[in-house]
Amino acid sequence: xxxxxxxxxxxxxxxxxxxxxxxxxxxxxxxxxxxxxxxxxxxxxxxxxxxxxxxxxxxxxxxxxxxxxxxxxxxxxxxxxxxxxxxxxxxxxxxxxxxxxxxxxxxxxxxxxxxxxxxxxxxxxxxxxxxxxxxxxxxxxxxxxxxxxxxxxxxxxxxxxxxxxxxxxxxxxxxxxxxxxxxxxxxxxxxxxxxxxxxxxxxxxxxxxxxxxxxxxxxxxxxxxxxxxxxxxxxxx
Length: 237
What we know:
The protein contains 8 helices and 7 strands. With 237 residues, the protein is α/β, with parallel strands linked by helices. It has a single domain (21-38, 54-234), classed as 3-Layer(aba) Sandwich (Rossmann fold). The termini are close together.
């Protein structure tokens, strides 16, 4: 079993990013009020270490996690295409949570659970070898040098992901920010628990076939930025 190179549990988690945006429509406010409690994972009440299967009834044998799901369109599409998989979406932005709740209700999706807190608080609570896939799509690049320590990709989070992902599990990253792409490639491929899956330039230029373009990707392309996609597999052992 992989032993972390750093003890992330000793690091205090500082929360960054917006929690609220423009005022929600009445229907979305009602979704937050009435629908969120039915699918919400309350990080404060979790007994650690937890088995993510416990959040689903009936239980799903395969669990995927999306960290910072934004508007929720990717997570909703994946949940619809993979009804046998249990999906946990972590997001602190209320407007994005409301959007995912609306999409989930429209498509009658039953395999989504929402963690409305920072994923870095959740990862240490998850039991070993629990996740089969993790998505990190268009995270905040925190472009200023003084803010680089806020980036999700770092030694501590990679250590936690290595611990909670099963051997062979996939970690997908997408970004349109060149410096964040370089940052990812300076950290993830050299981590002993992860292997970069690449055979040529198309592997990072082309979105995975089973994925969709998020609103952030569409905005990036409209504004002339080039999305990049990286896939890392959890090594055995």
